[in-house]
Write a structure and sequence with these properties.
Layout lengths: L3 H8 L3 H9 L6 H14 L5 H8 L4 E6 L5 H16 L3 E6 L8 H10 L4 E4 L4 H6 L6 E4 L9 E4 L1 H14 L5 E5 L7 H15 L5 E4 L6 H14 L5 E4 L2 H13 L9 E6 L2 H5 L5 E4 L2 H16 L7 E4 L2 E3 L10
Parallel strand pairs: 1-2, 1-3, 3-4, 4-5, 5-11, 6-7, 6-8, 8-9, 9-10
Antiparallel strand pairs: 10-12
Helix pairs in contact: 1-2, 1-3, 5-13, 8-9, 10-11
């Protein structure tokens, strides 16, 4: 196995200089970086990450906890977090809880401790995880429960609910319905729900609500979509708490002979890659995921470095109008 001494000898520099290059410490000229890098390449040298982490007293690892990854929203969140963390010199360890994160909360905490992560980004909506975390470990809560004890990064969910409600009103909807999951006031989607209701009440518009109770399996989403049209057969506009929910609304509308957008307008939330690929393309409230993930990683790193960070970071959303809310001439 190639050693750091051999790299130093090949590059014609001291071992200390190679160590500074590897750990990005002190001033090193670009010429020196190139020289050491070339020597490492020629010798096929791979730094020992464990040794480097002990030297820095840091693992350069961030633990990320998500409920599922087959949902496009969480898939994009993970992708963005990896992008940002890599650019900051960190690696991501991903844990996926499945449909019941509370049952394995201690297992996840144990795994994080075993891997000696420098910090954690939580995307799980479960208080059991919060209760078991070591408070000495830096943590950022991402688009989930707002807890006074944890720095939180989220989008402006209330603004998003208002934008969606106003879009349905703009389209002339007379029987709007909101569908999704928002039963817990601690959840970000709860603010989407209250904002939607406030806008409709202010406009004097009667509205319907179909709350899922649980949305962990495909059957849950399919049942939710069926209930929307069974309970409100006259609905002409649906605001969904996520683009994932909206896909099932579009499918159920087609099954029941309803045309989108001629008969029913649909607005989603997230505006992930799924929205533009649906048929018809989905009007959706866009969460600024790139900026949210950058904020989450940077807040975590600042904590790791011993800095105080703001308790709450809220980023604005925008509405991306597509075919699903197109207005037809009289």
């Amino acid at each position: 196995m190639t050693t750091i001494k051999e790299v130093a000898r090949r590059a014609g520099v001291s071992v200390t200089t190679v160590s500074r290059v590897l750990n990005h410490r002190g001033y090193i000229s670009s010429e020196m970086y190139q020289k050491v890098g070339q020597a490492m390449k020629e010798l096929n040298y791979r730094p020992n990450e464990l040794a480097r982490s002990l030297l820095r007293q840091s693992s350069r690892l961030i633990g990320v906890l998500v409920p599922i990854i087959d949902n496009p929203f969480f898939g994009e969140v993970v992708s963005q977090l990896i992008r940002v963390a890599t650019a900051r010199g960190y690696k991501i360890i991903l844990y996926c809880s499945g449909s019941d994160p509370s049952s394995s909360a201690q297992d996840y905490v144990n795994m994080l401790e075993a891997n000696q992560v420098d910090g954690i980004i939580l995307c799980l909506n479960t208080r059991e995880i919060d209760e078991k975390l070591d408070r000495r470990l830096p943590v950022v809560s991402f688009e989930r429960y707002r807890l006074e004890t944890l720095p939180t990064v989220s989008c402006d969910n209330r603004q998003g609910g208002e934008l969606a409600a106003r879009e349905l009103l703009r389209c002339g909807c007379r029987h709007p319905v909101m569908a999704g999951l928002w039963d817990d006031p601690w959840m970000p989607a709860y603010e989407r729900y209250t904002a939607f209701c406030d806008v409709m009440r202010a406009a004097g518009m009667p509205y319907g609500l179909v709350e899922a109770g649980e949305c962990g399996r495909q059957a849950d989403y399919a049942r939710l979509a069926r209930l929307v049209f069974e309970r409100y057969p006259q609905t002409d506009g649906v605001f969904c708490t996520s683009d994932h929910v909206a896909t099932y609304i579009l499918q159920q509308a087609a099954r029941t002979g309803r045309r989108i957008p001629q008969d029913v307008k649909v607005v989603g939330f997230n505006d992930n890659s799924l929205a533009s690929m649906l048929n018809p393309p989905l009007t959706s409230v866009r969460q600024p995921l790139e900026k949210m993930c950058e904020a989450a990683v940077d807040l975590l790193i600042r904590q790791i470095q011993g800095e105080e960070v703001p308790q709450e970071t809220v980023l604005p959303v925008t509405l991306h109008r597509r075919e699903s809310t197109r207005i037809f001439p009289e």
